[in-house]
Amino acid sequence: MIFLFTILVLSYLVGSIPTAIITSKVVMRDDIRKHGSGNAGATNVFRVMGWKPAVFVVLVDVGKGVVATLLISKIGAGSIPLDETVVRILAGLCAIVGHIWTVFAGFHGGKGVGTAFGVLVVLAPVASLITLVVWLVLVLIIRIVSVGSLVAGIVFPTVLFIQRYIGKVDIHDALLVVSLLLCVLVFVTHRSNIRRLLRGEENRFGLKKEEASS
User: Fold this and answer.
1) pLDDT for res 78
2) Which range of residues forms the domain containing residue 83?
3) Is there a single domain that holds both residue 137 and residue 189?
């Protein structure tokens, strides 16, 4: 089981790379968590530093999920007494956990949406792309990223269940379970956003706080 342990630890460490924090310290010589919403994620990077650093953060965060699920999960391939898909899922989950609770920043990282997308696009590309389209449409129309993320958390497992039980696509049982767990995780990590949404105080994408509340 040493190979599985290695996969889980490496996936967690890769996921733990605090992209937004590192980027903020390079670009503005400060910690992004001291600014804006205080979150170490791409949306806050966009609000505080602009779209270029935000795009970089998104790409790296997505890449962390892809690397863990597609590459790190292959360590000791054939020597682990588990289904290959299950190993990929475990590696991906560790990367997501690492992103949210990063060991490199006091276990206080981002909300895991970008890294989760990187994991899911490897495991279920069709459902992931449909979810991405829904997210983009909502963000462009409503201009509230958290709403897009919350709805996306529901859309992904819904698409998987439709694919399996209506489209008769071969979807692994473990992936169905994980999709539901990730949906719950999205809502848990966005609980502060949900509170602001209920109060009508959530910032709109591309608008300053005063403009968003008017």
Assistant:
1) 83
2) 1-119
3) yes
